[in-house]
Amino acid sequence: LRRKSHPFELRVENMTLRVAAPQEYHEESRAAALSFWEQVQSYSRRHPEFRSSKLPLRLTSDAPEAIREILRAAGAAGVGPAFAVQGAMTDHVGRFLSTILPEVTIANGGVHFIRSGRRTKFAVFRDGEGGELKITVDPRAGTEGLATTLGRAHLPARTVDGLGVLATSCMLADAAAA
Questions:
Q1: Most exposed of 35, 120, 125, 171 (fewest Cβ within 10 Å)?
Q2: pTM of the entire predicted model
């Protein structure tokens, strides 16, 4: 028996996560998001370069696993860790809900966590005349993260109209899109 999902929003700092899951998981999801955010805040107080570096940073011995994962994803994409934090928040809440629910979709700006048993389409670009370019995410490919330029205030370059990056995680997709 499937539970009907009524999307809800979580607001953490300057991020708004739109979660497609039953409303009854709102408080648990919020706790997961706030726990993750506290780890980021605590680590960045000790290591201010975590928030400002545009280049990859080395792992430190005091980094919790969530921070280590961000540093690895950002390093793989050749960017600083701040470019992966939005994706990491999305991953963190999505992975938490995935331990409870078989299907979860979360949108956080242009970053999407997708755990689904069916192929799903996401818009990557919309023109002013109603036209769209969509990307199809196939769960058999192992993709859980999608970063698009839709929902973002800034494009990565002036020559980019729209961008979609599929990856095994949101933080990797987010960092690669940067």
A1: 35
A2: 0.88
**Cα–Cα distance between 114 and 133 in angstroms, integer?**
19
Burial of residue 143 (CB within 10 Å: 0-12, 13-18, 19+) is: middle
- At 127 the pLDDT is 73
Q: How far apart are CA 44 and CA 114, in angstroms?
A: 28
Pairwise CA distance, residues 160 & 152, whole Å: 13
End-to-end CA distance of the chain: 40
Distance CA 108, CA 116 (A): 17
Name the β-bridge partners of 105: 20, 114
Chain CA centroid to CA 28, Å: 18
Ranges of beta strands (E only) in 34-144 are 104-108, 111-115, 120-126, 132-137
Alpha-carbon distance 55 to 75, whole Å?
8
Q: What is the pLDDT of residues 127-173, one digit of tens each?
A: 777 778 888 888 888 889 999 876 555 555 565 667 889 999 999 99
Structure tokens of 141?
């490919």
Backbone angles phi, psi at 40, to 5 degrees: -65, -45
